[in-house]
């Protein structure tokens, strides 16, 4: 069976001030063409279909368009909700849509329910594990600790139990939206650390033939059977080195996996340039970036006049301007913001305790701090969910 694995469309999202709807429509066209030309048997979409819970009308229309086009091709599609989606909204009409071959899995309670497709070698069972926020699904899975690893492990127990009741030789595919250990994040993914450590070991997914992951925006191979497709378009300059693509997966009769990486159309390359303004304007080696979307970091000791206007004369698609002035040995150490860069809230709180009393927190105090931050984040997440549903 031939699968096309994609995820993280983020329909409705902009890239800095650039409307990406046209690029997203071009990707959808490319996806449909690929399904037809490469004779794909099933499409799997591993979450973050939309960029926010209440997407703009144009994004909904594009989503509607791709569903119709895939249904017209007669190619089954299995799709899950991600942490950016409203699971309830995305799942509206799932039963009816399923009759057209578009199978939506947005409910935690349905993790163990397979979508069964068949080829010449027998059945392939697809299991959709939508984004599982630990604080909201811990009761559904009856876990003692509300953590990402615990709820995903419980969901996979249901998958394995269902698979065990199926005929011998049934192949299996799991769709999941999660941060798996070994994956490399970028700046454009929403934090999912509510409920403790976000990363889960790949071993959670043992026992299935292929795991189609979503959430991280870079295409990555965790193992031969566990892969991220990545987002089809860039959504932050941290993705400047990404190769935007989808996975074409061939699942053999014995469950063996072979994979081919298919490039996605990107409207412009991304470039990050750095240096004094005059150097950037004169450097001949930067000519290759003149039609790119550019993030420029200026290192001038004194901020120059009208830097954006001057940059866009040479690099008309400059979207982000940062300042990192050179410092001399006599100048003070890095700014407060620079000292905090890369540190999470818990680490900052521990540093504050150390600064105030001269010694850092002990293990019991660290536990209290961690629980307090988790409680605040959980409350914020639940409030966001309530606001989403209240807008219905």
Automatic annotation (TrEMBL):
It comes from the Bacteria. One of its GO terms (biological process) is DNA recombination. The keyword Hydrolase applies. Pfam families: Metallophos, SbcD_C. The keyword Transferase does not apply. One of its GO terms (molecular function) is 3'-5' exonuclease activity. Residues 1-218 form the Calcineurin-like phosphoesterase domain. Transmembrane segments: none annotated. Residues 267-355 form the Nuclease SbcCD subunit D C-terminal domain. Keywords: DNA recombination, DNA replication, Endonuclease, Exonuclease, Hydrolase, Nuclease. Coiled coil: none annotated. PANTHER family: COMPONENT OF ATP-DEPENDENT DSDNA EXONUCLEASE, NUCLEASE SBCCD SUBUNIT D. Belongs to the SbcD family. Heterodimer of SbcC and SbcD. SbcCD cleaves DNA hairpin structures. These structures can inhibit DNA replication and are intermediates in certain DNA recombination reactions. The complex acts as a 3'->5' double strand exonuclease that can open hairpins. It also has a 5' single-strand endonuclease activity. This is Nuclease SbcCD subunit D. It comes from Streptomyces tabacisoli. The gene is sbcD.
């Amino acid at each position: 069976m031939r699968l096309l694995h994609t995820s993280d469309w983020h329909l409705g999202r902009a890239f800095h001030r650039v409307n990406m709807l046209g690029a997203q429509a071009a990707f959808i066209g490319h996806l449909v063409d690929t399904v037809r030309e490469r004779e794909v048997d099933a499409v799997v979409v591993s979450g973050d279909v939309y960029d926010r819970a209440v997407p703009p009308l144009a994004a909904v229309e594009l989503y509607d368009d791709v569903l119709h086009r895939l249904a017209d091709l007669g190619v089954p599609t299995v799709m899950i909700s991600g942490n950016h989606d409203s699971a309830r909204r995305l799942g509206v009409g799932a039963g009816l849509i399923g009759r057209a071959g578009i199978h939506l899995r947005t409910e935690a309670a349905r993790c163990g329910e397979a979508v069964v497709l068949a080829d010449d070698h027998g059945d392939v069972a697809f299991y959709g594990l939508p984004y599982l926020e630990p604080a909201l699904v811990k009761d559904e899975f009856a876990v003692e600790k509300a953590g990402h690893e615990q709820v995903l492990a419980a969901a996979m127990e249901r998958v394995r139990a269902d698979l065990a009741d199926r005929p011998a030789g049934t192949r299996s595919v799991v769709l999941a939206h999660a941060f798996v250990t070994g994956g490399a994040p970028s700046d454009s993914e929403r934090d999912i650390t509510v409920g403790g450590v976000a990363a889960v070991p790949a071993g959670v997914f043992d026992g299935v033939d292929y795991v189609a992951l979503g959430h991280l925006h870079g295409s990555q191979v965790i193992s031969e059977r566990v892969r991220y497709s990545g987002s089809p378009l860039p959504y932050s300059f941290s993705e400047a080195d990404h190769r935007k693509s989808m996975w074409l997966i061939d699942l053999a009769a014995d469950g063996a996996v072979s994979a081919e990486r298919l490039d996605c159309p990107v409207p412009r390359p991304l470039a990050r340039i750095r240096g004094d303004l005059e150097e950037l304007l004169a450097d001949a080696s930067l000519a290759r970036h003149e039609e790119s979307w550019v993030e420029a970091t200026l290192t001038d000791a004194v901020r120059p006049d009208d830097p954006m206007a001057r940059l866009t004369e040479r690099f008309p698609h400059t979207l982000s301007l940062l300042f990192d002035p050179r410092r001399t040995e006599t100048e003070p150490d890095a700014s407060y913001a620079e000292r905090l860069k890369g540190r999470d809230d818990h680490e900052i709180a521990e540093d504050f305790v150390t600064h105030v009393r001269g010694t850092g927190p002990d293990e019991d105090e660290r536990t209290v701090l961690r629980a307090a931050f988790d409680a605040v984040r959980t409350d914020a997440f639940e409030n966001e969910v309530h606001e989403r549903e209240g807008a219905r």
